[in-house]
Amino acid sequence: MNIPKIIRAALTDGECELVLKNAKVVNVFTGEIIDGDIAITDGVIVGVGKYRGKKEIDICGKYVAPGFINSHVHVESSMATPEVYAMEELRQGTTTIITDPHEIANVGGMTALSEILSAASRVPINYYVMLPSCVPSTPFEHSGASLNVRQLSYFKNDPNVLGLGEMMNSVGVIACDKEIVAKLDEFSDMVIDGHDPMATGKKLNAYISAGVHTDHESISYDEAVEKLRAGLAVLVREGSATKNLEAIMKGIIKNGTDTTRLAFCTDDKHLAEIRSEGTIRHNVELSVKLGLDPVKAVQIATINAARIYGLKRIGAIACGYFADLVVLEDLENFRILDVYKDGIRLQDIPQPERYEYSRSLISPIYFSELSEDCLVIPEKEKYSVIGVVDKQIVTQKLDFSADDLKKHISDGRINKIAVIERHNATGNIGKGYIMGYGKIHGAIASTVSHDSHNIVVVGDNDADMIYACKELKRIGGGYVIVSDGKTVGELSLPLGGLMSLKSAEEVITEIDTVIKKAYELGVNKNIDPFITLSFMALPVIPELRITDCGVFDVTRFEFVR
Amino acid sequence: MNIPKIIRAALTDGECELVLKNAKVVNVFTGEIIDGDIAITDGVIVGVGKYRGKKEIDICGKYVAPGFINSHVHVESSMATPEVYAMEELRQGTTTIITDPHEIANVGGMTALSEILSAASRVPINYYVMLPSCVPSTPFEHSGASLNVRQLSYFKNDPNVLGLGEMMNSVGVIACDKEIVAKLDEFSDMVIDGHDPMATGKKLNAYISAGVHTDHESISYDEAVEKLRAGLAVLVREGSATKNLEAIMKGIIKNGTDTTRLAFCTDDKHLAEIRSEGTIRHNVELSVKLGLDPVKAVQIATINAARIYGLKRIGAIACGYFADLVVLEDLENFRILDVYKDGIRLQDIPQPERYEYSRSLISPIYFSELSEDCLVIPEKEKYSVIGVVDKQIVTQKLDFSADDLKKHISDGRINKIAVIERHNATGNIGKGYIMGYGKIHGAIASTVSHDSHNIVVVGDNDADMIYACKELKRIGGGYVIVSDGKTVGELSLPLGGLMSLKSAEEVITEIDTVIKKAYELGVNKNIDPFITLSFMALPVIPELRITDCGVFDVTRFEFVR
Question: Cβ contacts (< 8 Å) between A35 and chain B: which residues?
Answer without folding.
Answer: none
